[in-house]
Amino acid sequence: NESGRPLAYFHQISNLEAIEGADIIEIATVLGWRVIVKKGLYKIGDSVVYVEIDSLLPSWPYFVSDGLDKKSFKIKTIKLRGQISQGYCIPVKELLNHPNKKVSPIYHSERFDEIIELKDETTGKTIPIELGYNLTEFIGIKKIEEYVPTIRTGPNKTKIYTFPSFIKKTDQGRIQNLLHYFDTHKDKEFEVTEKLEGSSITVYRYKDKNGICSRNYQLEKVEPSTDIHQAIIEDLDLINKLIESNLNIAIQGEIIGPKIQGNIYALKKHHYKIFDIYLIEKDRYATYDERIELLQKLGLTMKDHGAPILFKSFSLNGKTLKDILELADGFSQLKESKPKVLREGLVFKSLSTHNDVSPYVVSFKAISNQYLLKKK
Ligand code: ATP
Ligand code: MN
Ligand code: MN
């Protein structure tokens, strides 16, 4: 789980709803996720282990007995009885039956049946049953990785290095996990761009250093280029432009095209679409205005070189999660794309920074459920 995104953690069931015509299952709400559970298994307010989509669960007898597909244990977006279900819930007490670890419970002193802590006897570590406590490693969950981090065109395997520590890796939180944004950031305006289904490339220049990175690594520069990432950045002459303009920044964008993530846009050649600029000296992302100004200095525009912009100024005020998820559905606005390709989703970025002490741009993603259901 390279990006380190927590895939399983304790959280509370905040709501339970019946499904019309179903008598053994119901819908539980955990954070902003709706997930199908066995009817009567949980009460509102119960702590559970919530497992996010994209998880690959290890093999546990419980998962089999609960009806998960025996061979894969992959947690994906599914539709059952007309209901979208995203994620998977495990009762806390099932952790006591971990197939490879000895785990003992520590109960509440007054309420006998309430476990307040678990003890991992193999490591001696205690596991507090606290909202958000990350259980990904403990359970042994891996992420379903859908892309190869480096795509090579040539026969030579190039070397890779660790990602520069002074740049943030590209990543976006899911709105379903960030429901407080509807309140905290209701007064902000957001830029809404299309989330492109490709692979991430960062190109940077910082003092005497420069380089090209995939999602998680800096790539070795080879002559002549045998790597798609390097080739596309060289086509745009980006490193030289950064050096000439004396900027200490990292440009982040998505490479899309043949052989990348199934090339859903049916592109004939590769394109690099910029979605962010990291200001290395300020240690934060550029705002929309700052990004436009920097791109201009480099002779680039959002229109030609950027991810499609759907709204220049969007507010969360008065909106619900449902509104945002509905907005995420729709066709790709990429001008090079063949028409009527469902988009992966949207990424929202605040136009102004948040927090005066250490300012940052607030951002999140909304993946289209329509797209997730079609994907499989
Ligand atoms: P997760 O499993 O959480 O979905 P992931 O590794 O698959 O993580 P993504 O879901 O694809 O990552 O979400 C973040 C990525 O979205 C970024 O790393 C970036 O490469 C990509 N991306 C595509 N379009 C945009 C955009 N318009 N703005 C920001 N990021 C974008
Ligand atoms: Mn993803
Ligand atoms: Mn992606």
Structure description:
The protein is of the alpha+beta class. The chain is built from nine helices and 25 strands. The protein has helices spanning 61-65, 136-139, 181-184, 228-235, 238-244, 288-297, 302-305, 321-328, 369-375; strands at 8-12, 15-18, 25-30, 33-38, 47-51, 55-56, 74-75, 78-80, 83-85, 88-91, 103-107, 115-120, 125-128, 142-143, 160-162, 189-195, 199-206, 209-213, 217-219, 249-256, 271-279, 284-285, 309-315, 345-354, 360-367. The strands form eight sheets. It has a five-stranded antiparallel β-sheet. The structure holds adenosine-5'-triphosphate (ATP) and manganese (II) ion (2 copies).
Write a compact overview of the structure shown.
Helices cover 15% and strands 34% of the residues. The chain has helices spanning 61-65, 136-139, 181-184, 228-235, 238-244, 288-297, 302-305, 321-328, 369-375; strands spanning 8-12, 15-18, 25-30, 33-38, 47-51, 55-56, 74-75, 78-80, 83-85, 88-91, 103-107, 115-120, 125-128, 142-143, 160-162, 189-195, 199-206, 209-213, 217-219, 249-256, 271-279, 284-285, 309-315, 345-354, 360-367.
